[in-house]
Give the backbone structure.
Amino acid sequence: MDHHARPVVLRATELTRRYGDLVAVDRLSLEVRRGEILGFLGPNGAGKTTTLTMLCGLLRPDSGRIDIDGATDGAGGRRGRPTMGVSPQATAIWEMLTPFEQLAFLGQMYDLTPAAARARAEALISAFGLEEKRNRLGRTLSGGMQRRLNIALALVHEPDILFLDEPQAGLDPQSRVLVRDYIRGLAGRTTIVITTHDMDEAERLSDRVCIIDHGRVLALDTVQRIKDQLGEGDLFEIEVGPELREALRPLVERLERERRYVTMQGSVLRFTSEDGGELLAEAFQTAKRLGLKIEHLGMRRKTLEDVFIRLTGRGLRE
Amino acid sequence: MRTLAFLKKTFLENVREWKILSLTLVFAPFFVYLMYGYYHASPSTYTLLVVNRDAAAGALGGRAAGDLIAAWKSATRVDGGAFFQVVEVPSADEAVRRLAAREADLAVEIPAGFSARLDAFASGASATPPQITNRASESNLRGTVAMAYSDFIAFQYASARARTALPLGVSVVPVGGTRPLSEFDLYVPALLVLALIMVLFTAAATLIKEVDKRTMTRLMLSKLRTTEFLAAVTLNQMLIGLVTLLLAYLAAISVGYQPRGSLAAVLAVAALSAVAVVAISVLVAAFLNTIFELLTVGCFPFFILMFFSDAMIPLPKIAAFHLAGRVVNVTDVLPTSLSVRAFGAILNDGAGLADVRFELAGIVVLTAVYFAVGIWLFRRRHMSVV
């Protein structure tokens, strides 16, 4: 189904939240459509968790409104919350209960019958690879297992809207794949809002990505459309010394005039181009003429990090 | 359904936190045995040291002193037991040493010539009566009690020998039964309340743990209501409180304590009191965020309850006001203070539930107030959108 054909289930309008003088979320607006996976991408402290906590009704915005399934929940109330599942960034499990007991217990807190809650618990134990630890106390599980359980607990009642705050954090590569596959399997049936500062994860999981920084939306669209902001073609990288960097300035200025994506970050010149070969040749000639050396040369596909660098002038991990 | 599921969950957690549970369960029985060890040997018999200097005083020497000592020895309680264990010591220094070592409650020195002076006073030959000297440690309340009785017996003996009437007649009417109560007996009701006060820690820990481990967020997002959450915690903690109290009660019985009231009445008061302690726990938990805070800051309300409920040390009562013909003390703002009184009346005076209805009503009202304030604060601090 086309993205725009789906109804909006979650709409945030001009959300603002301050902590003292710090504006954590600044007039943030977005829409999430039924069954889509929206990735929240931004560096640490960008306001991802604050936004997500407001969206799921656990934090009151200073201003703005949230509509869930058409019902206004402007003051940060929790109307409609039974259909929400939340996997917080910090692990929240019951240490003195086994994974099975926790899942079955929480299921009953959402009005599943004991039998249905047990069945659901078994299914999630299996889906998240917790079979061997099924009857071990939560506190004895490894960090990775606790993270898996943390996510499974958000799914016990099969929520309509699922909020996952940094779900891949603390997971080993095998667990990452397992969790990613499970989340992808929910696409179309469950609306998922997922925060991450991992661009690969955001690209692989999300139908649309919302890039935020300093609490403001920098870009909100499909991954491809956001990447297209950098222009057509692949991305070229040339690492040069200070002298060659100066010598290449006319080339950079020309690319800027042509409204291509070009950036000189430190000693690395990046630009997108469909005819990158010609530009590279030009750079080589300049270097040869001046007797200078190109330290490194590369070509790769554009990433969301490149977009982020273009939008903010710094990397996601800076 | 949700309440039952939560009850089962908290019960499982409590059982698995066996160290905390064990400490809670054995705390009061341990103190029962401890108090019994301290007080069972000296129930209502006071050790009276006598320094008798009258014995070597001439022909009449020692006769009156001997009679007086005999009077002390023959003084009995209502159950027929000796009131004094009389021990003659050779010197005042020895008596003082023993008093300081708490080997005795009171020392009486009968001076030389006591018999002669008493006879002279009785015959009218002298207007000055003989004098005896009491010595007691001010730090030992038993000395004061022993002094009152020994003086009374001495006055009675002296007036009979001098054939003069005492200016005031005094009769003693025992109240609350015919069996005298030992100090251990008097401590038992307080020790039972101590068992319930221990619930403060387990109840508050159950609440705070959800905050500390961030699972409260999961509960808030679920359909669990605050009332269901607190009902489950209250039921679970009431169960723990009743088991703890029962263990303390059985410990007291095992060392010979004889309750006069019914166990059913005790359990009824205990159940109500346990709920009251849970209500206070909710209030305490509202101010705390972590288990560490509970184990440090949380000790303060615990000691408040322990000391000001008369659960360990009987404190002087400060009357606040009168209500329905009863004195309401300042410390009665603590429901456990009323629990101590109710247990005392049932266990040591044989009262029934109807006799302690004032205390029960007080516990109910205070529980409601503590719950109302506690729930409001707890929700505001730990269960609300901020």
